[in-house]
């Protein structure tokens, strides 16, 4: 695996991330946010987006979900209108 590569195979992504290949395959199949795509029969993973994806999973797990600002504004408006 070269430092200059933009993409990784699932085996390389497993080595890079420390996550098992079978778990990555499961995520690739079940989570539309997983940063992979097919080239022929080969599955490639965007290296930079994989790091971002893993960081987001950690933030979600810790309860630091980043909310869409429009949704946050709607929820705040609803919260304020209930308090009146």
Short description:
By secondary structure, the chain is an alpha+beta fold. The protein has helices at 10-17, 21-30, 47-61, 69-83; strands spanning 7-9, 36-39, 42-46.
Largest sheet: 3 strands, antiparallel
Question: Strand-and-helix sequence, N→C?
Answer: EHHEEHH
The whole-number mean of residue pLDDT values reads: 87
The amount of helix comes to 55-70%
First-residue to last-residue Cα separation: 59 Å
Strand order of the largest sheet: 1-3-2
Strand proportion: 5-15%
Question: What is the number of strand segments?
Answer: 3
Global shape: elongated
Uncertain residue segments: none
By secondary-structure content and strand pairing, the structural class works out as alpha+beta
Rg calc: 18 Å
Any descriptors?
84 residues, three-stranded antiparallel β-sheet, 4 helices
Give a description of the structure.
With 84 residues, the chain is an alpha+beta fold. It has helices at 10-17, 21-30, 47-61, 69-83; strands at residues 7-9, 36-39, 42-46. The protein has a three-stranded antiparallel beta sheet with strand order 1-3-2. Strand 2 (36-39) and strand 3 form a beta hairpin. The longest helix has 15 residues, at 47-61. It is elongated and about 55 Å long. The model has no long low-confidence stretch (mean pLDDT 87).
């Amino acid at each position: 695996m070269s430092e200059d590569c933009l993409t990784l195979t699932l085996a390389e992504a497993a080595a890079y991330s420390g996550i098992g290949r079978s778990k990555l395959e499961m995520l690739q199949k079940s989570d539309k946010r997983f940063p992979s795509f097919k080239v022929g029969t080969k599955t490639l993973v965007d290296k930079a987006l994989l790091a971002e994806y893993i960081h987001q999973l950690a933030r979600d797990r810790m309860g630091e979900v980043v909310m869409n600002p429009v949704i946050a504004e709607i929820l705040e408006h609803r919260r304020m209108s209930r308090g009146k």
